[in-house]
Design brief:
Elements: H1 5-15, H2 19-22, H3 24-39, E1 46-50, E2 66-71, H4 74-87, E3 92-95, E4 108-114, H5 123-133, E5 134-145, H6 151-168, H7 176-181, E6 187-190, E7 198-204
């Protein structure tokens, strides 16, 4: 479903104060373990996190890397800044859209995004921007929920998607693996422990 970036931003701004509480159960049950596994692969001097949100990944940042993190929602960034100050996390926070990054080509060793591309209006445009700012040999690490490969579940997800987008701004039927494959990455690895609808991916420039 196509929704403007401004509409999606407004929905995340609206949810920002309660976002951690809304996802608290799934975060503790499943997502936190997957985030830890994702960030264990992050390496290099300069690392970019896309879609920092409220700062749920702060605990997993590598200690010896220069961290930059962006989000397109001003009110999500307010929550992230509060958490950054409370936890004393060393990270530079920027208000920025992944579809139009202000960074130079070949800037980062690793780019990390978790549950982000469900909300990007033009996901392939955003992925191409990440490819651009990665250094040659750099890696993109993604944790994303995707459309089920089960045709019955996929049909239900497609049916429900307009409602979910209207409520929270996230698409539940994105085919992010195919979108990554459509970019120019030299190699793409899908973690074999990934489930049908939760994919942990590593793509190398």
């Amino acid at each position: 479903m196509s929704v403007s970036g401004d509409k999606i931003r407004q929905r995340y701004d609206r949810l920002a104060p309660w976002f951690d509480s809304l996802e608290g159960f799934l975060e503790g049950l499943l997502f936190r373990r997957l985030r830890k596994k994702l960030w264990a692969m992050a390496e290099g001097e300069h690392i970019l996190e896309v879609g920092v949100g409220t700062g749920k990944n702060f605990d997993f940042y590598p200690a010896d890397s220069q961290m930059t993190a962006i989000d397109f929602s001003p009110k999500m960034l307010v929550q992230a800044k509060r958490k950054q100050e409370r936890k004393q996390i060393k990270v530079h926070l920027d208000l920025m859209d992944v579809q139009t990054l202000c960074y130079a080509d070949n800037s980062f060793d690793t780019v990390v995004a978790s549950f982000v591309f469900c909300s990007v209006p033009q996901p392939r445009k955003g992925l191409k921007e990440l490819y651009r700012v990665l250094k040659p040999g750099g890696q993109l690490l993604l944790l994303e929920h995707v459309l089920s490969s089960n045709k019955y579940m996929a049909a239900m997800m497609n049916l429900l998607n307009p409602l979910v987008v209207r409520l929270v701004g996230a698409n539940i039927n994105r085919q992010t693996v195919k979108n990554v494959q459509a970019c120019s990455f030299r190699s793409i690895f899908i973690d074999p422990s990934s489930s049908d609808m939760l994919k942990l991916m590593r793509a190398v420039k």
